[in-house]
């Protein structure tokens, strides 16, 4: 391997914080680094080549970190690595989809064991076959931690509170999707999960038969929707209130 090949320069990585960059440079300048010399089987110093090689390793480390390879549970969709965290679950000793650790506090996901249809986030029905995903229980090296509960299952977020659900009032959008137009009601794979409430709504919705052009005006359709919704009682993305007048975001 030719260590003299071109490496990415630290200065070209725009996402590094200035303080981090200075600390890294100071560390690199601080000492002499050695590599194994294949030709004489001795350790020898390699100056700039080693500096650049070390920088490259550090850069790759930061890229993997910032790119989200250390995944977290998505509170919007209750998914991890593309799989929903509710449904039929089979315990295995190998070939698992997830490694999980059972804890008594500070869990990533609280889980409710159920014998009914497990169709809400955190509802698990343990089965011997026909599973939606497989888990292996471990003491360390887990993908995420769980805590069994008899209450309401929930996902822990970095904010340690409810997941921020914010509509942009300047353009009446949520997650980049305008909250007006043609809407289809579905039972799976929605764009948004909505809960109908009488008070403290996120958006007031007026049902119309034609031209749903203003914020909060929805026309229910079966085909060619602008977005899809699923009605839920828990873990909603949005709370809506049906109104006859003055739809929109407060």
Q: What's a quick, concise take on this entry?
A:
The chain has helices at 18-30, 47-66; strands at residues 34-37, 42-45, 79-80, 83-84, 87-91, 98-102, 109-113, 123-126, 133-137, 144-148, 173-174, 177-178, 181-185, 192-196, 203-207, 217-220, 227-231, 238-242. By secondary structure, the protein is of the alpha/beta class.
Structural class: alpha/beta
Overall, the morphology is globular
Query: Radius of gyration over alpha carbons?
Result: 26 Å
Low-confidence segments, given as residue ranges, are 1-19, 31-45, 64-70, 158-164
SSE arrangement, N to C: HEEHEEEEEEEEEEEEEEEE
Straight-line distance between termini: 62 Å
Any overview of this molecule?
The chain has helices at residues 18-30, 47-66; strands spanning 34-37, 42-45, 79-80, 83-84, 87-91, 98-102, 109-113, 123-126, 133-137, 144-148, 173-174, 177-178, 181-185, 192-196, 203-207, 217-220, 227-231, 238-242. It is α/β, with parallel strands linked by helices. It folds into three domains: 10-66, no CATH class; 79-148, no CATH class; 173-242, no CATH class. Strands 5-8-7-10-6-9 form a six-stranded parallel barrel. Strand 1 (34-37) and strand 2 form a beta hairpin. It is globular and about 55 Å long. The termini are far apart. Residues 1-19, 31-45, 64-70 and 158-164 have low confidence and may be disordered.
Protein topology:
Elements: H1 18-30, E1 34-37, E2 42-45, H2 47-66, E3 79-80, E4 83-84, E5 87-91, E6 98-102, E7 109-113, E8 123-126, E9 133-137, E10 144-148, E11 173-174, E12 177-178, E13 181-185, E14 192-196, E15 203-207, E16 217-220, E17 227-231, E18 238-242
Parallel strand pairs: 5-8, 5-9, 6-9, 6-10, 7-8, 7-10, 13-16, 13-17, 14-17, 14-18, 15-16, 15-18
Antiparallel strand pairs: 1-2, 3-4, 11-12
């Amino acid at each position: 391997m030719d260590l003299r090949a071109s490496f990415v320069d630290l200065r070209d990585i725009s996402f590094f914080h200035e303080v981090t960059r200075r600390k890294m440079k100071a560390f690199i300048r601080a000492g002499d680094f050695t590599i194994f010399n294949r030709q004489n089987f001795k350790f020898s110093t390699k100056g700039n080549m080693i500096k650049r090689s070390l920088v490259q390793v550090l850069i790759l480390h930061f890229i993997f970190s910032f790119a989200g390879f250390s995944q977290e549970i998505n509170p919007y969709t209750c998914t991890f690595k593309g799989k929903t965290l509710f449904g039929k679950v089979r315990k295995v000793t190998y070939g698992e989809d997830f490694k999980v650790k059972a804890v008594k506090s500070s869990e990533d996901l609280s889980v409710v064991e159920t014998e009914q249809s497990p169709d809400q986030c955190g509802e698990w029905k343990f089965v011997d076959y026909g599973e939606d995903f497989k888990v292996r229980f471990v003491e360390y090296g887990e993908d995420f931690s769980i805590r069994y509960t008899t209450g309401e299952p929930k996902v822990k977020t970095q904010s340690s509170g409810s997941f921020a659900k914010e509509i942009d009032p300047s353009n009446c959008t949520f997650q980049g999707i305008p909250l007006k137009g043609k809407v289809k009601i579905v039972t799976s794979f929605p764009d948004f999960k909505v809960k109908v409430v009488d008070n403290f709504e996120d958006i007031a919705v007026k049902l119309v038969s034609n031209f749903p052009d203003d914020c909060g005006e929805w026309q229910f359709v079966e085909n060619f929707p602008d977005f899809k919704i699923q009605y839920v009682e828990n873990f909603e993305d949005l709370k809506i209130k049906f109104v006859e007048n003055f739809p929109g975001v407060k």
